[in-house]
Amino acid sequence: MSARSASQRESLAALGREVEACRRCPRLVEWREAVAADPPKRYRGQTYWTGPVMGFGDPSAAVVLVGLAPAAHGANRTGRIFTGDRSGDWLYGALYRTGFANQPTATDRNDGLRLEGAYVTCVVRCPPPANRPTTEERDRCMGYLVRELAQLRRSRVLVALGGFGWDGALRALSEMGHAIPKPKPKFGHGAETDVGPYALLGTYHPSQQNTFTGRLTEEMLDGVLSRAAELAAASRR
Q1: Longest dimension (CA), the chain
Q2: Total count of domains within the chain
Q3: Which of 21, 66, 72, 206 could connect to 165 by a Cys-Cys bridge, CB 3.0–4.6 Å?
Q4: For residue 65, which of 121, 27, 117 has the smallest C-alpha distance?
Q5: What is d(CA 11, CA 205) in angstroms, rounded to the nearest whole number?
Q6: What is the DSSP secondary structure assignment for residue 186, as one 8-state letter?
Q7: Which phi and psi (to 5°) does residue 131 adopt?
Q8: What CATH number did the domain enclosing 161 receive?
Q9: Per-residue confidence band for 3, with pLDDT thresholds at 50, 70 and 90
């Protein structure tokens, strides 16, 4: 590992420690601890992570996926983003099929999952009630995403998982000093726009609400990730 790579990993690790110690949002702290104290029957007896969640993946990634927030009984339980829930099953399955992951499953932090060329993160670091963070909670957390993207120095393609991820990615890029196109780019599945040195792609979120109804299919998600891989390869030329 080069000295630069080691420095980048340590910078991300330091940010991760800061994220994991955060208690800025009393409502979210209360909620994340309450759901851990009274889990569904299938998770009883398990020790919950019960804290904010840092991103996960390849520090040298060209592709960064931006979701909404950890799931109450997914990452809030396992301690790794999109791990241990149905949305993660869909997401990591797609990352495996498109060559970004070494395996299609994500069950816990010690399951051997590795990402190559991809990094997964979120806008809000704690699970919000009903998956709806307030504007104030989003804004308190935004600095973490800004700093994370700045430290992922080779990232050139952002994949927004849902409208909240799309809006969060645009806000983060704006705070990084990049001019947002006018009119503001609208979210949609397959939407694509350029912001500074980044390409931003949109996909419907791999939530059960979308996957169970067929609004999002495996082919649709694979298509967006394949497009992200194409753009990442083009950025390296």
Answers
A1: 51
A2: 1
A3: 66
A4: 121
A5: 29
A6: P
A7: 60, 30
A8: 3.40.470.10
A9: low
Which two tokens mark 40?
Answer: 């569904």
Q: What pTM, to 2 d.p., does this model score?
A: 0.96
The alpha helices in 121-217, defined as continuous H runs, are 135-151, 162-175, 208-211
Pair 131, 164: CB distance under 8 Å: no
Structure tokens at 169: 């990615």
- Alpha-carbon gap, residue 197 to 194, rounded angstroms: 7
Query: How many whole angstroms separate alpha carbon 222 and alpha carbon 104?
Result: 13
3-state secondary structure of 121: strand
**What domain range includes position 68?**
3-235
Q: Name the strands in the sheet holding 118-122, side by side, starting at the edge strand that comes first in the sequence.
A: 56-57, 118-122, 63-67, 157-161, 198-203, 192-195
pLDDT at 207 over 90: yes
What does pLDDT average to over the chain? 96
